[in-house]
Amino acid sequence: MTIPNQDDNLANEVYKLPIDLIEMDRLALQHRMWCVMIGGLFPTHAADSIHTILAPSDNRRPVIMDVGCGSGIWSTEMAKAFPHADVIGLDLNEQKYPEAPDNFRFVQGDISLGLPQFDALADVVHCRCVAQHVKDPQKLVNILASCLRPGGLLLLADGDWIVYDRDMKLVKPFVWDTTKDVQKQVENAGERSFYAGWLALFGDLTKSENYRPIEELIDASEAFTAVDMHSYLSPISWPGENIPNGRELGNIMNINQRNFFSGAKMTASKAGLTMEILDIWEKLYNKELDSCQLYNVWYYATAQKV
Ligand SMILES: C[S@@+](CC[C@H](N)C(=O)[O-])C[C@H]1O[C@@H](n2cnc3c(N)ncnc32)[C@H](O)[C@@H]1O
Question: What are the structural domains of the chain?
Fold first, then answer.
């Protein structure tokens, strides 16, 4: 299937996911998943460094930036957790931030154009689930580095579009052939997964061809030291094996991924899939989600600006 260029709006030329309230609610739920998975607003292993870097000081207020802040949930929660800091949430699209305290402010902007107004300003820069959506992820990481003061901390996190089974084998995605009979394809699906197929489609749709694993992007920027990379598994609809807080993660992921299908249906229809296929796919996808024992994988890197 060919993926057409969906958007003529320059600011949105790469970002293909929805930006409506339903998607903001889904991102808020996914934020909850991140917090359960990593142990809070930032990974437990980075907590001491973050508290040191953001310690109150008589000289100036610490600055936290959340680049590609989406619903703004991470930034507003950080603003509440660090009331003596100034928190900037930056995104292409402004949303409503009813929970935001006074030390949070939103800045509208396109990261791809650079952020010279924030040069060496921030003590902590957070950028989660954004890098694969921009045309030039390396340039993004270089720009994030430029926003940090020397000694400041980068928190760079991302997901992936692959799915593992309970034995950690990659699950084969189901791929629709729009020229063939729909029912026959379903009958012949075999071991191919409708869930993995949906993620694979969105990987094709949204992932920049220049994307590389986040630790490679950090290394290549040559702006950081003490790079610390962790990966996390989130079980879907089951607790997983030896996964901390697995049951809660499994439940959140079931709802998150259901909402991801219903919320992103229009995006998929623009990629050439008929509503007939999408309606059938959604039923098969939800059925699989409810009975599966699968995992998704997420990556979190912290790094200190030299
Ligand atoms: C998948 S969402 C992640 C949102 C948030 N970081 C989170 O983890 O909940 C990606 C966000 O990046 C923003 N984004 C994508 N490209 C951007 C760009 N060039 N400049 C600014 N923001 C961008 C989108 O508008 C969207 O809000």
Answer: 10-305 (3.40.50.150)
